[in-house]
Fold:
Amino acid sequence: MARASRDEIKKMLNIKNFRELGVRHAEQLVEMMPDMDKEVRLKVVEQLPEVVRFAVEAMLSLQRAHESAIESGDKSRQQVNQTCRDAIAAYAEQLRRDDLDPETRRGLNEGLERLVAVECEADVSHKRFLSGAFDKKILGVGAVLLVVWAVVGGRAVIRSGGAPA
Structure:
């Protein structure tokens, strides 16, 4: 099979020079590695630390956004909790009155039950949010590891049956 030249590789990746390599090129590069001239492979490998750095910076940015979203969600949850506690206290105060007729007492109890149900649903929803956030963080870390693995030639090693290309 003919070896691809530097210019052919740049044309296939739609870049002007190898300094433009980014994370999005990693998979393409790994697939092309076996067909590259040795000199071209070396130039690509020289740029790999930069590609990995971009991937890590992207993940750190996502992590900061993720942490901010969790902090905001926690503050919101605390406000909802406090509002519900205040409302429950108001219901309890009303229910302590001796002069309530049975219908009013039943209405207050039903309101209290609805409030508790809303509070429980808010708690479940917040836990789902945290679980989803954790899952996204795990996926993000996995994505970085995958990019790093692909960039350093894992895919090429697998395709060549365990021997580096």
Q: What stands out?
A: The CA atoms of residues 30 and 153 lie 6 Å apart. The mean pLDDT is 76. The helical segments are 6-13, 26-32, 38-95, 102-151, 154-159.
